[in-house]
Each structure stands twice: as C-alpha cells, then as structure tokens.
Recover the amino acids of this structure.
C-alpha cells in the first residue's frame, strides 16, 4: 500500500514561539498586543459588513452568525474568536502556540463563551464545513503559503465566506510596520519579516491555485487624525473577502 502524500507543514516553530511568549499580555490593551486591540475594531467592521452582504443577514441583528459555523485560524488568544462567538457563531479557533490556546480558553470561559480552541497546524487537522473562515495577519508568518491557503480553502463549506488580512510588501510597510513600529516599541521586535509580506496580486494567485476567488481588497491605513481605518490605500495592510470558485 502506498503512503499518502505528506501534507506540507505550515507552522514555523520560531514564529509560534515568538507569539507564544506574548500570550500572557495578549488581552492587555496597553501591553505588547496594543496594536492588535486598535486594529480589531477596523477588521470587525469589514467582517460584519461582508457577513451581511454574503449571507443576506439583517444589519440590525446582533447575531448574524446564528446557526453558522466559524473557524478562526491563527487565533492568538481569541481577540477575533470571541466577537465571532458573540455574533452567534459556533466557533472553532486554531493556533500554532499552545500558550495562546491556554490563555484563549481561560479568557473565553471567564466570559461565559463556548469556543472550541485547538492547538496545532490547520494543514494537518482535516477540518471542514465552516460557513465562515477567518485568518488575520497570519499568512505572512507561515512556512508554506500555498499549503496554508489550500488548508483554509479545504475548511470552507460550499457557499461559505473567507476573510483574510495581511500586510502588503511595499516600501511604506517596511518603513512604518517594521522599521518604525518595532523600533518605537509599538509592536514587539521580531514580529514582522518584511520579505514574507505578500502583495494582493500574489495572494490572488495563491487563492486561484486553491480554487478560490478573491474579492476587491480594502486597505487598512493609518493617519494621525483618523488612526487605523479602512481605506482604498493598500500600501500598509489590506483585508479581503474570498469565496469558492463556482
């Protein structure tokens, strides 16, 4: 009997260790994950709008994911998984760092939320059938981008919605996200590796290779007056909805 083709690993152990070391401060809005706390409302506004548009849910309802399954990949300590659960979703969340899963589980339990947290590599879990799949600022940290996107696609149910966000590989992102934010202490040193950032065109091609269709990306920009906000400027970071090719 022939051995099955091995699944390429997507986890980089050094990246998992880096984020695992930050686990204890993940929920502190003034700690090492402060930038994520500022970014989360911007991402959630996009996610909510895409959920309503894709599934035809009432914009006034507080639980647009009621009766739907959601998967958050690279969940950290649950900054996105918890809002998805509050939107009514039956949420599974995966992370490469065991420390993050421990913090996430304790935080959800303290808040009375039921979330199925799992530690490991999404490419090796065989998960599927999710109406919503999210992965925020993760693809730039994985060992094999094509395998990772393929695993996300395999987890998506027919008719489902995927939402991804990631930094763009531009001169502006190198100056502001890497050299600026890390040197000023806004982001922990070693968080970003500019050469691993992915452009919208590169992401589009990876998605097409996995049988997925990319929507029009929206930029996440920053200005002194507006702070972090959704924008047509994709130079720093962008967020995009994805569906399965018909």
């Amino acid at each position: 009997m022939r051995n099955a083709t091995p699944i390429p690993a997507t986890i980089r152990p050094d990246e998992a260790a880096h984020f695992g070391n930050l686990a204890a401060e993940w929920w502190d809005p003034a700690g090492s994950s402060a930038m994520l706390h500022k970014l989360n409302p911007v991402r959630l506004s996009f996610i909510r709008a895409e959920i309503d548009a894709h599934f035809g849910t009432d914009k006034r309802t507080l639980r647009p994911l009621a009766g739907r399954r959601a998967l958050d990949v690279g969940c950290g300590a649950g900054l996105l998984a918890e809002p998805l659960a509050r939107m009514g979703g039956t949420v599974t969340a995966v992370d490469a760092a065991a420390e993050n899963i421990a913090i996430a589980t304790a935080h959800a339990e303290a808040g009375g939320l039921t979330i199925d947290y799992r530690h490991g590599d999404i490419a090796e879990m065989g998960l599927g059938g999710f109406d919503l799949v999210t992965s925020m600022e993760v693809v730039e940290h994985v060992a094999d981008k094509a395998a990772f996107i393929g695993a996300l696609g395999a987890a998506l149910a027919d008719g489902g919605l995927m939402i991804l966000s990631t930094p763009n590989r531009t001169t502006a992102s190198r100056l502001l996200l890497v050299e600026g934010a890390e040197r000023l202490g806004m982001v922990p040193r070693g968080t970003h590796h500019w050469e691993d950032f992915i452009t919208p065109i590169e992401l589009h091609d990876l998605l097409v290779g996995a049988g997925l269709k990319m929507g029009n990306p929206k930029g996440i920009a920053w200005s002194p007056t507006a702070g972090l906000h959704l924008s047509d400027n994709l130079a720093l970071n962008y967020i995009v909805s994805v569906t399965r090719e018909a």
In short: Helices lie at 13-20, 34-55, 81-86, 98-110, 145-155, 171-183, 200-209.
